[in-house]
Amino acid sequence: MSDERIVFLGTPDMAAQALKALVESGFNVVGVVSQPDSPKGRSHTPTPSPVSAMALELGIPLHRPVKLNHDYDFVARLKPDVLLTFAFGQILSSKVLALSGKFPPLNVHASDLPRLRGASPIQTAILEGDRETAVCLMEMVKAMDAGRVFARQKVAIAAEENTTTLSAKIVSVAIRMLREYLPKYFSNQLVGEVQDEGAATVCHILKKEDSLLTPDLSPASFVNKVRAFALKPGAFLRLDGGLEIKVYRCVGLLDGKDHGQGVVEKAQDGEFVIGLKGGYVKLLTLQKPGKKAMDAKAFLNGERGLAGKRMLGVDEVFPTQTNGDSTPERK
């Protein structure tokens, strides 16, 4: 389909699917860059990223630098016409971006830019209760996700959508977009839309404490957090007494009543109910450490005395310590 020399940069499974689709569609992917192998499992065996595994399967030259900005000879030797990134996971320097020879470098970004620039657009859209997001094919510039947008496709977020299901929808849209718009980009048919800097918002890299379900959440925010971290890594709560529970599915209800915030109101007859400000949540699919996920009825068959237990807050689960210059730090 295309003779232009593409170097593809990406890391997770959704990017691996896009890489495979590009090659199967006849695009000339001459090299792949991904994050270094990372330890997996109890044995901590170094394991290639999904994009690395796909490049090896397809027989495409592969580079796995710790920092591409300091180790980019591999890319330079390939003399790419364009760099194409999709969830690569490293910020690229001006020197690396300049290696995109014939065309400005491109990035596939999973948000409705300029909203949600940054590292976690899919999860953050769900966390914030958005009902719609987008996939953008955009120019890569030194400023984070600030380049011109050459193509945009809206993606609806269903009420029960989680990050796993939304990611599947987004990669499907991204593949269709690349197949349709890359040839137009290479033939200079696309006019880039300059982003409105005044409307820009940023999303950060999510840490473990971001996945903690806390007693100060509203029912809607509780549900959104569960959706945003499902199915991996899973949002979790910790009750006083130490029991930690991952929650993969729940429903929230508003009744305007003054519930005890974060207190287990019911844990019997197959119902696990926690009171929150202005309402409550029913936990539907749960998991204890070292166990399989299960429905509330099966979970409660193995647990007694949970009614009246209190959810712990972030400072109780992740206590702070003070370093030498009196700056609070998370342990």
What does this structure look like?
- The chain is built from nine helices and 17 strands.
- It has 331 residues and is of the alpha/beta class.
- The strands form five sheets. A seven-stranded mixed β-sheet has the order 5-2-1-6-7-9-10.
- Strand 6, helix 4 and strand 7 form a beta-alpha-beta unit.
- Helix 1 packs parallel to helix 2 and helix 1 packs parallel to helix 6.
- The protein is elongated.
Q: What number is the mean pLDDT? A: 94
Number of strands: 17
Helicity range of the residues? 10-25%
Distinct helical segment count? 9
Parts with pLDDT < 50 across at least 5 consecutive residues: 321-331
Cα-based radius of gyration, to the nearest Å: 23 Å
Strand order of the largest sheet: 5-2-1-6-7-9-10
Largest sheet: 7 strands, mixed
Q: Distance between the terminal alpha carbons, to the nearest Å?
A: 52 Å
Proportion of residues in extended strands: 25-35%
- What is the global morphology? elongated
Order of helices and strands: EHEEEHEHEHEEHEEHEHEEEEHHEE
Keywords:
331 residues; four-stranded antiparallel sheet; 25% helix; 31% strand; elongated
